[in-house]
Amino acid sequence: MLVKTYTLFSLILLLSLKCLSQTNYQPGFYITLENDTIHGLINDRSGIGNFSNCQFKSDKPSKPVKYLPEDIQSYQFLDGRYYLSKNIYVDSVKRHVFVEFLVDGISDLFLYRDNEHYFYVIENADGETIELQKEEASDWSDPSQHDPYFHVRKLKVAFADCMEIQPQVEQADFSNKSLIKLTRNYHNYVCDEYECIVYEKRIGPPQIYIAPVIGISKSSLSFDKEFYSNFTYEDNQNFNCGIQVDFVLAFINDRMSVQALLLYGKNDYKGTYNNYYELDVMNHRLQGELLFKYTFPFGMLRPSLGFGMHNDFIRNASFFAVVDNNPGNPPNETYIDTIFMRYNLFGGVLQAGMNFRIFGNREFFTNFRYTYSDGITNGPSEAVTTRINAYNFNFGFYLSKVR
User: Fold this and answer.
1) The predicted structure's pLDDT at residue 16
2) Model confidence pLDDT, tens digit, residues 71-93
3) pLDDT in tens, 243-284
């Protein structure tokens, strides 16, 4: 069962990764070589793709047009990110590329990325540039020669005319957040004529989406020791319902979220042993989950993958036994009073889903989940492990509009 489950999730993952080649068009504009501003939709590829070219559409039905750095002056997303066409040196060779414009001030700060490079460029008011890159371990011919202050020394040169900023230079990290703050503070120390401009993605207020959920579950019950472990239990199928809450982690990545799920269902597991004994295990099952989820932004259809913690809380469990080992006499039917079953089980969950955007910003979704949980309780002579494995297919819709 586990092999089939992981195989299924692997296939879903491969299909989702294949979808990464699709598009994520966001509102924005580009500026032509003639200084005209053209508004429309720009494909946001988030990683290195945004540095190679600009893929633009005037509206959703239009065909995309690809612009290289030499074709336009710049392009910008309405969320604040700004990419500028610029000539810079990459491996001592002058190249015409797109750089991400981070700070526009007395000294400008740019970021450049491709498959082999990741570095910042600081350009002062005289047009002089300093390339700021992090020394990688792979570059060390002798580990003892490693300079932990490699980028700090470059920053000291770039901001040498401002003594007030030097303590902050010593503490600077090789990251957008740290270098933007440092460059902005430098500007505020040395310039009182105008404010610098910071181009970075604006983080909106927290996004919380609530959705009612219904679905169907197929689960299996097993015990590893004592009397209950002798029985072969049939898989149980039942309907469940509940509520799902998504907390979007926009401060990290607006495609990542924490999902909380609470589901209720009623189970009835029927077990047999030696053709003489039957056992009917009935209970109410409350499922609680907390998982991390990544949603691929592909427009109308948005696949997602998630994993996290799962809890089964069993209520009102009853064991009804039927013993028919005396031919010619009615079977003996009875409820078992002493139950060696764990009522609070903990485990994990794997989830693959698909969101369907309809009616503008309204979204329906489906989730396929595999869950497992177990717990230990004391039996008559030794500890007994209760285990539940389940496949779940849920369907729901968000009550509020999705951004």
Assistant:
1) 46
2) 999 999 988 889 999 998 888 88
3) 999 998 876 677 889 999 999 999 999 999 887 888 888 899
Task: Write down the residue that tokens 């505020």 correspond to.
Answer: 188
Task: Tell me the torsion sign for CA atoms 183, 189, 190, 195.
Answer: positive
Q: What is the pLDDT of residue 109?
A: 93
Q: How many CB atoms lie within 10 A of CB 326?
A: 10
Paired tokens of 330: 């009615």
Alpha-carbon span 147 to 108, nearest angstrom = 26
pLDDT value for 169: 87
Query: What's the gap between Cα 217 and its chain centre?
Result: 25
Token pair of 73 as six digits? 């002056």
Judging by beta carbons within 10 Å of its beta carbon (0-12, 13-18, 19+), is residue 334 exposed, middle or buried? exposed
User: 375 with 356: CB under 8 angstroms?
Assistant: no
* b/e 138-161 (16+ beta carbons within 10 angstroms → b): eeeeeeeeeeeeebbebbeebbee
How far apart are alpha carbons 237 and 390 in whole angstroms? 10
What is the C-alpha to C-alpha distance for residues 390 and 338, in angstroms, rounded to an integer? Answer: 26
- Rounded to 5°, the CA angle 37-27-206 comes to 135
**Token digits for 189?**
């120390």
83, 75 contact by CB (below 8 A): yes
How far apart CA 317 and CA 56 sit, in angstroms, is 60
Structure tokens at 69: 């750095």
Whether the pTM exceeds 0.70: the reply is no
Q: Are 355 and 367 in contact (CB under 8 A)?
A: no
DSSP 134: P
What is the Cα–Cα distance from 78 to 63, expressed in whole angstroms?
21
